[in-house]
Fold this protein.
Amino acid sequence: MKNNLLFTFLFLTCISCFSQKNITWDNLADVEFSEKFFPTYGEYFLYPAFSDTMQSLEGKQVTITGYFLNIDPDGKLFIVSKGPMASCFFCGVGGPETAVEVQFKEKPNFQTDEIVTITGTLELNADNVAHFNYIINEAEGLLKN
């Protein structure tokens, strides 16, 4: 009996180590920003200090649901946003924590403003201002019904 309980405990522990973590927009909002000067651009940008919770998820499989935005005419930059295109970060509504850059395994067939669920590996980005603060790599997505 004790062996069965120990096996069950170890099995469930291992499964939870390898399963993806659902994150929410509230999780992403748990970040502090300060202005930092980037000499390459000669400008100040918002510099994130990620929460301990988000730091613990870096490099792990995560899942988030939001609005799909295709903002690049060449189809190379995809975003999942807390809000639809009309109220996205680029339109001045919300901050950088309301949008996630998505690097898909394969280019999706989603349309702008469709609600999608994205799963992939979380990358936290503080220093490369050419990319978003939150990036999901090797991503796959499903259209939310």
Remarks:
- The CA atoms of residues 67 and 115 lie 5 Å apart.
